[in-house]
């Protein structure tokens, strides 16, 4: 279901089309001197507005699809990393190497190495309480997960005793997975940029001061009012058409 905001953009375009239709129907009586409210300019803006709305929709679809692919690719990722550590621990690799792998896996899982022990409350009720300022250990962005996984692969690659029989735990397969995860993450980044740029273009085309679709529409309505009068049937036609701008957050 389209959001209220997205519906508002589409409604502006629909009303702009109605506005052009009314102005066209006025024939030679609609003859403004201002270039950007003449009919050719209005029709060009209308076509561009429809195109940018479609671009926003298509880039959003691409972004959603690429995000879904990335999420599916990462879904078994954390369990796999735990299995890698277990496979390493089942060898005669040094305790230090196993502990290094566990440290990397803790970061992948988003867990602390040790439980935080908070200081006891002060016995003096008037004593100043020092707030706990521990930095969050959550490093769950996809970029960080890829970085941690790269380190995990480097660690087991350097361990001669790591040679599991399970195909998906072998270093070759892990590197293949890493390449796939990097590719899906890059695709999302590219899609995010494309959609963001489309939104910027749409907002400029619709809402930029003086030259955006909304301000142009208001100028047209003013012109119709000046030509036919505030109580005219023509002005009543166009005055009913609403053009809105998104609320500033």
Outline the fold blueprint.
Elements: H1 4-25, H2 39-74, H3 77-89, H4 95-109, H5 142-157, H6 171-207, H7 213-228, H8 233-239
Tell me, rounded to a whole number, the average pLDDT: 89
Number of separate helices: 8
> Count of DSSP E strands?
0
Q: What helical percentage do the residues reach? A: 55-70%
Weakly predicted, low-confidence segments:
114-119, 124-139
Gyration radius (Cα, Å) is 30 Å
* Envelope shape: rod-shaped
Distance between the termini: 22 Å
Question: What is the H/E string?
Answer: HHHHHHHH
- Portion of residues in beta strands equals under 5%
- Structural class call reads mainly alpha
Descriptive notes:
The chain has 249 residues and is mainly alpha-helical. It folds into two domains: 116 residues; 96 residues, no CATH class. 65% of the residues lie in helices and 0% in strands. It contains eight helices and no strands.
Features:
249 residues, mainly alpha, 2 domains, rod-shaped
Summarize the structure in short.
The chain has 249 residues and is mainly alpha-helical. Helix content is 65%, strand content 0%.
């Amino acid at each position: 279901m389209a959001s209220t905001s997205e519906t508002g953009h589409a409604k502006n375009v629909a009303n702009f089309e109605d506005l052009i239709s009314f102005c066209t129907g006025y024939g030679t009586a609609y003859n403004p001197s201002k270039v950007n409210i003449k009919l050719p300019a209005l029709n060009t803006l209308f076509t561009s507005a429809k195109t940018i709305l479609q671009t926003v929709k298509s880039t959003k679809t691409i972004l959603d699809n690429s995000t879904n692919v990335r999420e599916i690719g990462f879904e078994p990722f954390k369990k796999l990393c735990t299995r890698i550590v277990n496979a390493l621990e089942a060898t005669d690799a040094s305790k230090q190497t196993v502990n290094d792998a566990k440290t990397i896996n803790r970061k992948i899982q988003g867990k602390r190495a040790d439980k935080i022990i908070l200081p006891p409350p002060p016995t003096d009720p008037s004593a100043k309480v020092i707030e706990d300022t521990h930095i969050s250990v959550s490093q769950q962005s996809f970029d960080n997960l890829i970085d941690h996984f790269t380190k995990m692969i480097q660690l087991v690659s350097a361990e001669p005793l790591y040679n599991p029989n399970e195909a998906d735990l072998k270093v070759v397969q892990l590197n293949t997975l890493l390449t796939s995860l990097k590719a899906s993450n890059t695709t999302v980044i590219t899609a995010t940029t494309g959609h963001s740029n489309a939104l910027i273009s749409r907002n400029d085309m619709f809402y930029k001061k003086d030259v955006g679709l909304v301000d142009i529409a208001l100028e047209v309505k003013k012109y119709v009012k000046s030509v036919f009068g505030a109580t005219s049937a023509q002005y009543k036609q166009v005055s009913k058409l609403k053009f809105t701008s998104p609320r500033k957050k």
